[in-house]
# Entry
Amino acid sequence: MKKGNGKFTIGMYAASIAVTLFVFLLCVRAGSVDVPLRELFNSPIIMSIRVPRVICVALSGAALSVCGASMQGLLKNPLADGSTLGVSSGAALGAVTAIAFGINFPGVPFAGTMILAAAAAFLSLLLILTLSYKLDHTLSTNTIILMGVIYSMFASSIMNIIITFASDRIRSIMFWTMGSLQGSGYADAAVLFAALLICGTVLLLHSNELNAFAVGEDNASHIGVDVKKVKLAILITVSVLIGVCVSIGGTIGFVGLVTPHMVRIVVGPNHKRLLPISMFAGACFLMISDLIARTLLNPKELPIGVVTSIIGSLVFVYIYARRKGK
Amino acid sequence: MMLCVKDLTVRYGSFTALSGLSFTVDEGEWLMIAGPNGAGKSTALAAIAQSAPYTGEVLINGEDIKKLKPAERARRVGVLSQNNFVGYGFSVEEVVELGLYSRSHDGSRSVAATGREEGHYEKNDISNEERLTQALKLVGMESQRTQSVLTLSGGELQRTFLAQVLVQDPDILLLDEPTNHLDLIYQKQIFKLVSEWLKTPGRAVVSVVHDLSLAKKYGTNALLMDHGALKAQGLASEILNKENLDCVYQMDVYQWMHDLHSVWED
# Structure
């Protein structure tokens, strides 16, 4: 088993950037309106609609993947992710609540939605982890996932009630449960970029600590990691990033779950490599999913979450079977 | 006095796992904690390592361990636990390298603050890479340094974590049944290795052991525990005697050991 144990070269990053750029160009070019490559960036439709959308998709994919990878390391749980832990549903509930009750901060567009989404995501995580801990002090994978799934259903139900009563102000249930980045613009891209830049940096700076947690929380404490402080910092960071993603693109499942798994097969579990490469892989995965979502049944568009869930679940079954020895 | 434990008590709900344990460990000492299952031996180690909630006091060189930052604590106290399951396929060296964490995160540490001898610091001049290789060599894992920990046997994993704590290079080593998963070769090797490690000034070892022969051979001091309480303490050579052992284990320990040994006699 050599699984990424060799010295990781700069080449891998160069390749990741190249592949991501290639996928980006492919996704910008392909779509319901076909534009020749040479005129691609002169076309107003492409520049005002498709480019910002693909940028948002790429940034969301990167963000969700880095969050999934971080949670999987922190909780030493390969099934941890915003969608399995109920964090995304929590964030969606927060966002919907903000919109329904008109909670906003004057002067800052969509700040209310995002802040409430991030806060709800964090509170959801806290609630799920506390409940799991009360039930099972070892915080085993099964307990956490079970609590997450149950909480997810609960949060979705509450959200659906709110949407039903305030359907005039809130986008469809489909958007919040399956996600979509249709119609997202440069402003969304800027917010996503800023969130990813800040939160991604915080997570990358915690690579060492995440490695320690992935080996074991007790071990992390023994080697001198400030377990409580680091855990809180990572959980808050992840919640903020998921909150921002959800308030812009709804809940897009499976990206954060599947991408780190695929990346781990190639580069190993060391978060110094896993986190950055997961960002690129997540960006590519979501851009391709979005491409399929908008071209497969052209002119009808599928919610992006439908595509990620289909691809994601298939890939996941494959990975799981492979791990269990075929 | 390097380690001073005062009135250490651990309660889980209404159950008292450890009650009023007090002892001290001086430089150069190897304290063996022995006793039957459920005696509170591992609980005592966990409390000292700050992994279990406790009342009472744990002082490291006179300082309350609770007041130390995690990285400072790790520079003084290293732990080798009984069960080390790693969830992901990290390489052996990646796991061992984590032992260096407290070095890079303990900015405040100076020679004066550690209470270590000047001369002792000579060996700290070596690079982290050398430190890593040295530890891997000592535990016999150097040839497997790039291997995934998921493919290791219990003994190899135990030696990997021992290398991690050697890299961490603490003043006090807490070992919870260090040779639990190890075959005779490594059992011997690890006890020899730890007694070598202990020869450097400013160090002490506390370990939980089941093998009373090992406890008596390597221990300078010993605690005998039963049902969460201390039954006897003193020099290992003195307190690990027939009277104390029979009382704590409620059986004829000497006879049993004799029976075991006699199978090897012609």
Summary: Chain B touches chain A through 38 residues (CB under 8 Å). Chain B has a mean pLDDT of 86. The beta strands of chain B are 3-12, 15-25, 30-34, 55-60, 63-64, 77-80, 172-176, 204-208, 221-226, 229-235. DSSP finds twelve helices and ten strands in chain B.
